[in-house]
Specification:
single chain, alpha+beta, Nucleotidyltransferase, domain 5, Actin, Chain A, domain 4, 3 domains, five-stranded mixed sheet
């Protein structure tokens, strides 16, 4: 079967997917990353015939958030790292896979998808069926911590401890990996989306100002931080005054945003400590020497690496391209038959 797959791969483009809560990234064998789009779909509500149609997918759909008319719903089909709306997720996958097909290919591709550690059998089936419905010949599921570690060029097949912290949109996955297996892992629903929600709630409570998801995300990446430094940054924020009912602009600073993010950041640090406490001594010794690697979009939160280093007294390294670690790692695993056989979930 594997020899046949190798032959078929010559005539098609095997595809790796990081199906994230916030973004979906597509990696095509021989081409690299061909798509990096928000995991958002704009759906036209049912018409008089009961039909539902997709109006936009990805970046075009995200641009509609908070701006669409009442007959268009802007949906994020994944929540906390798993599919919450199967129908819309399938349509989104079908759209992305269609655009990733090799031109002139007449054979369906093999598809590998990064999924959260500890995914249930029902969730596995849902993801697999969505990919098959989107045009896959064969579907492999790879746990995201493993994929992130491979994407960060960690020696996962060696008998040494490798600690990865993958901070995505819906979940943070913390794992210790050795001999191509996950020795211990913990997943928490404290990640990028929760950071955005915390910023929205903080500004609403303190300033009676309502802001949207896009503004919260912009604040996070502009002045958000996890650990204090010498500089205090400021930013103008526009929203709706909940008292007067009119648009309003306020100024906030980086200290306030650090305060708003504190509970989410504490949960991430706590997960890291739990995994360290449950790591076998021999592997813990390797981590002392090699350190902790941060991947995922959340790894880019300013000074998060410094905070984790202060809390654990261990070296902390940010992956070279943390946003792409999972999809690149999934692609590398898909191209390595022996590793794919070892780490994929069947």
């Amino acid at each position: 079967m594997l020899q046949l797959d190798n032959v078929l791969s010559v005539f098609t483009s095997d595809i790796a997917i990081d199906l994230g809560t916030a973004n979906t990234l597509i990696y095509v064998k021989g081409e690299g990353i061909v798509a990096n789009e928000p995991s958002v779909v704009a759906v036209q509500e049912k018409d008089s015939r009961g039909a539902k149609s997709v109006r936009a997918v990805g970046r075009d759909a995200k641009d509609m958030i908070g701006k669409a008319p009442v007959n268009i719903s802007v949906i994020r089909p994944l929540k906390d790292g798993v599919i919450a709306d199967f129908e819309v997720a399938s349509q989104m996958l079908r759209y992305f896979i269609k655009h990733a097909y090799k031109r002139g290919s007449f054979i369906k591709p093999r598809i590998a998808i990064g999924v959260p550690y500890g995914i249930t059998e029902v969730e596995k089936r849902t993801v697999r069926e969505a990919a098959l419905g989107a045009g896959a010949r064969e579907v492999f599921l790879v746990e995201q911590p493993m994929a992130a570690a491979v994407g960060a060029n960690m020696p996962v097949t060696e008998p040494t401890g490798n600690m990865i912290v993958d901070i995505g949109g819906g979940t943070t996955e913390v794992a210790v990996i050795s001999l191509a297996g996950i020795v211990y892992s913990k997943s928490v629903k404290s990640a990028g989306d929760k950071m955005d929600e915390s910023i929205i709630d903080y500004i609403k409570k303190k300033y009676n100002l309502a802001i949207g998801e896009r503004m919260a995300e912009q604040i996070k990446w502009t002045i958000g931080n996890a650990y204090p430094d010498e500089s205090r940054e400021f930013m103008e924020v526009k929203g709706l005054d909940l008292v007067a009912g009119v648009p309003k602009t306020i100024e906030i600073n980086s200290d306030e945003i650090r305060e708003s993010l504190s509970e989410v950041v504490k949960a991430i640090v706590a997960a890291v400590k739990v995994v360290l406490e449950n790591t076998p001594p021999e592997l813990a010794a390797d981590i002392v020497d090699k350190g902790i690697v941060l991947a995922g979009g959340g790894a880019l939160l300013k000074n998060l690496d410094i905070l984790i280093r202060e809390e654990t007294n261990l070296p902390v390294i940010i992956a070279e391209d943390p946003l792409k670690s999972v999809v690149v790692g999934t692609g590398k695993i898909l191209e390595n038959i022996s590793l794919l056989k070892t780490v994929s979930l069947y």
